[in-house]
Amino acid sequence: MSSRTLPLLFLNLGGEMLYILDQRLRAQSIPGEKARKDEWTDVDRKRVMNDIITTMFNKKFMEELFKPQDLYSKKALRTVYDRLAHASIMRLNQASMDKLYDLMTMAFKYQVLLCPRPKDILLVTFNHLDAIRDFVRDAPSILNQVDETFRQLIEVYTPLSAGEFQLIRQTLLLFFQDMHIRVSIFLKDKVQNSNGRFVLPISGPVPWGTEIPGLIRMFNHNGDEVKRTKFTTDGNYVMPQREGSFDLYGDRVLKLGTNMYSVSRPVETHMAGSSKSLASHEKENIAPNPLAKEEMNFLARLIGGLEVKEAGGNETGFRLNLFTTDEEEEHAALAGAHESPYAVISIAASQEPARQQELARILGELEVAEPRAGSAAKGDDLLALMDAL
Question: What is the pTM of this model?
């Protein structure tokens, strides 16, 4: 496994999360002069997006994220996104959070599968960051945070070899390999089968720096070409016009990682039957019970910077529902409590103002396993870092 995979996974999943939240917040927004106290306005949407992006690109958080380290479990990363989604006045109950995470993961899995070459995963990441930068274009201080992460990505990842990017891609595919959640956008576009597996195209542009298939060259021991043989292929291939830009600003050329929710259409997710038992096991007790020591230390370092904001004074926390109705959300929550089957859930673009009170936060306090003898110094360092954040 690659020790450089975690930042790319976190930033791309975070970008997908922001796409979904922005779409739903826009759908549920009410004009400010007409909104009641418990209803969303566009001002609330911008505040939520700014708060989450500020937390996501916190300098100390990014420093911990970019340290070389193994990729951790789905449960550990899910815990991070739970905290991140609640870094503002917005509140999601567990059923909506499940749906949000499903959409995030399947979208990025599809992007990884479609990358023409492993290095293009970096262009996908840049597309997400370009969109995030557009979300905060009116907030210079937050924009600077995003740009600083951009510079870190360029510094760390552009020098990597093709082999190192291939290892990153394999690590990501291992992370996603058991996730087969059906999404209506993919099903309608016929890029996903009814069992939740993706259909990969056999035509289109070939990776940058390669040639169109159809020719075999043979060379002798001196390196001289001695024979050519042509063969036919089932696909229709074309040469790419140019390579995408890996600069801070530039044309990425590749469209993977751009916002597929910018065109409003319903989005549904459904767990394929073969994956239900696995999902049920993994989603069992999402609240972070003590895990292995290393994983909990990892969470302590990362989550130290993710402050869940409490409503202050007379301010009320706003609840966001990713389902069409409150009844549908409650039904999904009950179904998940029994067997976590990921029953059919949907995102609709119609306005559904939030009317319920703020729900209890999903996560309790992290319980870090007691350090073994001789490791007190490391534990003290982690606690000091958490206090500093």
Answer: 0.73
